[in-house]
Every structure is written in structure tokens, then in C-alpha cells.
Amino acid sequence: MSLPVLPMHDPVASPVAGSDLSPASARELHEEIRALARARDAVILAHNYQVPEVQAVADFVGDSLQLAVEAQKAAQSTIVFCGVHFMAESAKVLNPKKRVLLPNLSAGCSLADSITAETLEDWKARYPGHAVVTYVNSTAEVKALSDICCTSANAASVVRSLPQRKILFTPDKNLGRWVAAQVPEKEVVVYDGCCPVHDVLRASSVGKARAGHPDAVVIAHPECRQDVVELADEVCSTTAMLAAVARHPAAKTFIVATEHGIVHQLRQRWPDKEFVVADGCLGCRMHCPYMKMIDLVMVRDALVRGRHEVDVPPDVAAGARRALERMIAVPRDA
């Protein structure tokens, strides 16, 4: 089952969680942002992990792959990317003639920071003849040195599509291990990086959540550790979790093993279902601080002041664009 990127625009449906804004102020700011987006010829894209009020003000909400595609399809001359830096970089790489704005330059990514271009060059030298598959959670410089990129939604398909039997997978070790299990015909060497938000989760926490909800369906992101993945009924990307719920119509409760921001989308789509964050403490452990660094005021200021513009050097952008476009061209069932 394929689900589209979700169009948003309902400030009432999205409480201002963790914000100092009153509901009335949030509604006013929401309407101001929408008017500014029209006036500035801008499209607002938001990742599934963003805070609810930012998801609500966006034109489209989705995962990395969906938003990369949506950025290319957008007719607007300006892209406001509510996510983290590597995502805004990718949007710029794929849309070199458009202006790409990241409302908060501090929104980085620990996983992307775990590998540099120099480290990848050294790693490639140790494994000649291997194709390099790089997760999109990486810098443009690292993408530029890769044969192809992937997301959690299409990682197995990307590896399966390559003619080479030997693969270097970077930088997420948990996703790489999961991909290797899905594509056993390939020899996959995995880099030792991880997303700390997913890597912190343990099977014991999932077990406790399941003990309290014995009939629940467990849905896990493939960036989770192997012991967590082995307990899951479904392993998939964030947006694919929406489809996973649809595959279990009789289930009333779902335990979700990923950054807790996705629960907002799940509750919007399935209001009659119960969604429990797998860490057992309402998402306090499965919380990405970088993904929560953008708020409505920052989105408004990005549109008013044109900040903060993201650019990528032409030589780096050319290599990264090749790797990203190869990824986008791979069919999901390759």
C-alpha cells in the first residue's frame, strides 16, 4: 500500500506542544505564515519528526525520500525546509536554482556528523571494488563520494539494484545490518555509526511496553538495534508506518519504536487507534533534540527575513546530485 506525502494546514488539529504560544496566538501565527508563503512563492516541507504545530503549517509532511521528491516537484522558487541540515542540503542539491531556507541553522544530525569525507575516503581505500551506498543522513560532501544514496524506505531496494556484489554501507550500522539481512546475496560491510535516538532503545523497554499492551502490534524503524527489530511485527520507515497500521485493521494498539514525533501523524490518520512510544516514558528517550529546534516563530522569520539560506559548492553538489538522483530512480521493488 502506497501513501502520499501528507498535505497539512489545520492549526486546530495540532496542539502547540512544548510551546509558550497560546492556541489563539498559534492560530494567528499559522495564518501569517501561510500568507507569507503565498506572498514569497515558498513551499514549506516538514519531516515527520517535527513538532506538531510545524507539521500543521507545512504544505507537505513526510520522510526523507518523500520530501526529496516533493522538493523536486515543487513549482515554488523558495523551499522552507523544516528538518535538519542534511535535508536542506539535499533539497538545494536537487534544486540548484531555488532558494532553500533552514529556519534554524543549529538543527544538525549526530548520525550525519559520525562520518566525514576524509573518513569515507580512507574507508573506501581499505575496500577496493566495493560500491558505496550512503544513507541520506549524511553531509553533501559524503554523498558526493558515494555511488548512490538511500533512505530507510528504499535502502534494501537500492542495495539490491546495484550490479556490484560487494557493498560499503554508511553511516548507520543498525540500518546497514538490517539491509544486509534483507539482501543476503550481497556482501555488505557496515560503517560503525548510529542514530543515538534509535540506538538508545533496548528490547527490555519494548518488552515492558508489550507487557502492558499484550495485544499490541510493534512497529520499529530499521535504525533500531537488532534486539528491538527482532521483537517487531513490522520494520519500516516512518511514513511506511502509516501503511503498516492499515495492514492490521483489527489491532487497537500499536507500540511505535522510533522518534516520538511520528505519533502525531499516526494519531491524525488513525484517531481510533492507541499509539504507545516504545521507550515506556512517553518518548522522553526517543526524542531528537535537533528535530525539535524549529518552531512557528522561526518559520515565520525564515519567510520574512530569508534566513537561513543553505548553499552547497558546485563541485560537491554535482557529485551529491548524482548519488541522490540514482537513489530516486530506483523502484521500490528493485
UniProtKB/TrEMBL annotation:
PANTHER family from the UniProt entry: QUINOLINATE SYNTHASE, CHLOROPLASTIC, QUINOLINATE SYNTHETASE A
Gene (name only): nadA
The protein's name: Quinolinate synthase
Cofactor: [4Fe-4S] cluster
Cofactor info, note text: Binds 1 [4Fe-4S] cluster per subunit.
A GO MF term: quinolinate synthetase A activity
Keywords: 4Fe-4S, Cytoplasm, Iron, Iron-sulfur, Metal-binding, Pyridine nucleotide biosynthesis, Transferase
Main localization (coarse): cytoplasm
Catalytic activity from the UniProt record: iminosuccinate + dihydroxyacetone phosphate = quinolinate + phosphate + 2 H2O + H(+)
Native source organism of the sequence: Anaeromyxobacter diazotrophicus
EC number annotated for this UniProt entry: 2.5.1.72
